[in-house]
Amino acid sequence: MIKAIVLYNSRGGNTKEVAEKIAEGLGADIKDNKNIPDLNEYDLVVVGSWMMMGRISIGGSRYLKKLKKRGIEGKKVALFFTSGGPEEVHWKTENSEHPRKLKEIMFEQMEAILTRNKQVTILQERYYCKGAVRMGGEVKDNEGCPTEEDLERAKLFGEQLKEKL
Ligand SMILES: Cc1cc2nc3c(=O)[nH]c(=O)nc-3n(C[C@H](O)[C@H](O)[C@H](O)COP(=O)(O)O)c2cc1C
Hints:
Layout: E1 4-8, H1 14-26, E2 29-32, E3 44-52, E4 55-56, H2 58-66, E5 76-83, E6 90-93, E7 96-101, H3 102-115, E8 121-130, E9 133-135, E10 138-141, H4 148-164
Parallel strand pairs: 1-2, 1-3, 3-5, 5-8
Antiparallel strand pairs: 3-4, 6-7, 9-10
The chain binds flavin mononucleotide.
Flavin mononucleotide binds at residues 10-16, 50-54, 82-85, 102, 131-133.
């Protein structure tokens, strides 16, 4: 039996909700970015964050960078995130004249941080969903997201990871 953990940072609660469902499906431990344990005892680390200003959130970027010190080296890693935009949205980026899909940008950033100076195996299995956008305590967009269906899909994602490993 493999031992897995789901890690996340979340400001408004969307990414946390999704993380909890993935952990449920996977039968994994779960910790937020402030409580990351020694990862040596885990075979699979599922890493999640949310999108802020067209990039991974600052809290997400910070904790991903610290994972080497926690022993992520040599582990299998699966990625997920939530954002205000739909996955099909195309963004113009500084490095590219060609617009890129939001999902591509975010997963690429997460992967770049996680593999910089570290040997980790990033799995192709990934999860994304839209999350309600909260500003000043009010929901400004995507009311009701993640939806029940998104959360069911998150649980299924966890179950599929378990089966695969
Ligand atoms: C300050 C701020 C900036 C955001 N910037 C983006 C963005 O650039 N692109 C996007 O798709 N969503 C953006 N969002 C939406 C969040 O990614 C989305 O609401 C996410 O689900 C929040 O996750 P959380 O509830 O776990 O904090 C932004 C939200 C906030 C609060």
